[in-house]
Amino acid sequence: MTTPDDALTYVYAAVPLTAGLSETLKGLRGIYGSPVLLVTASPESSGTAPPLAFATSHVPRRDFNESALKNHFEDLDWLEDVARTHHDVVQELSTHTTVLPLRMATVYQDDDRAGQALAEQQDAFAERLAQLTAHTEFGVKIYLAPTGAHADARPATDADTNAATTPGKAYLQRRRAQHNAQEAMYSQAQEAADIVGAIASRYASQHVRHPTQRGALTGPAENVLNDAYLVPDSNAAPFRAAIEEAVGVFDGIRVEVTGPWAPYSFAMPPAERQYSTTGEEHGS
C-alpha cells in the first residue's frame, strides 16, 4: 500500500497475518475515518517467525508530525478523540484475532518505514503474541466511599448527645468518627485486595499493578487498587464470577471488574521507531 505524500502511517497494533484478516478489516475505520489497512514486512525478512502485519491507517502529516503532536497532546478534546478511535480499532481487531497493541500516536514516515520496523521487531512481536494468544485482559479496581460519608450517616446515640456538651467536643467527635470509618474502609479494601489476589493466582497467567487513579476518573470515590490481569479465555467467566461473589460482602468499598479488553497492559515496552521533525526515525 502506498502512503500519500501528505500523510504518515499510523500503527494501531501488530497482529498475526492470517488468510481472513483482510476481510476482517473491511469497513473498519480508524483516525479521521481513514480505512484500516495492513502493512507487512518483506517475505525474506521474516526468517523463521510466523508472518505478522501492522494494522495501520494514513493520517495527515500536518497533525501527526512531531511538532504537531506536541501541541495536540495539550488539546484534551483532540487527544480524547484519537485515544478513543485507537482503542476502538484495537478492540475490534481483538474480537477476531490476537493483538499486540502499540502506543497511541505510533507513526512512521510511510508504509515502507513501517514495514521495515515490523521486520526489525518481528521475532520479538511473534514471541509476545504467542503468549497473548487465547488470553484477554481484565481490570480490577477497588474504590473507597467518599471520606466522611459513612461517619456522617451514623445515627447519633444518647452517649453521643451527652458527651458532646460543646460545639468543640461535637466537632472532635465527628472527626474521630470519620477517621474510624475511614480506617475501617481501608481495612476492608486491603482484605478485598488480598482476596482478589488469591483468586487471580488460580485463574490469571500474568498481573500488572497500575498507579491508582485520581481526579475526574474516579469522581468523589478514592481509588486504592488498580490492577490488570491476563486471563486465559477458558478462565474468563469463572475469574469474574469468583471475584464478584467473594467481594460482594464488603460494605463501604466498591470493587469493579472490567473487561475483557485487548491486552494493553501486557504489550511489551515498544521499541518501535517513530517519526521526527528531521525526517529521520528515532527510538522512543
3D structure, described in words:
The structure is a single chain. The chain is α+β, with helices and mostly antiparallel strands. The chain folds into two domains: 7-133, no CATH class; 136-263, 2-Layer Sandwich (Alpha-Beta Plaits), CATH 3.30.70.380. It has helices at residues 21-25, 61-64, 66-72, 76-94, 111-132, 149-153, 158-163, 167-203, 236-247, and strands spanning 7-16, 37-40, 52-60, 100-108, 135-144, 206-209, 222-232, 253-261, 273-275, 281-283. It is globular, with a radius of gyration of 25 Å. Mean pLDDT is 82; it is low at 148-156 and 270-284.
**Proportion of β residues?**
25-35%
Q: What would the CATH topology of the largest domain be?
A: Alpha-Beta Plaits
The H/E string reads EHEEHHHEHEHHHEEHEEE
| Number of beta strands | 10
Query: What form results from the Cα inertia axes?
Result: globular
For CATH, the homologous superfamily of the largest domain is named as: Ferrodoxin-fold anticodon-binding domain
Global structural class = alpha+beta
Fraction in helix: 40-55%
**CA-based gyration radius:** 25 Å
What is the residue-mean pLDDT, rounded to a whole number? 82
Largest sheet, strands/sense/barrel: 4 strands, antiparallel
Q: Helix tally? A: 9
Quote the distance from N terminus to C terminus.
25 Å
Question: At the first level of CATH, what is the class of the largest domain?
Answer: Alpha Beta
CATH architecture heading of the largest domain: 2-Layer Sandwich
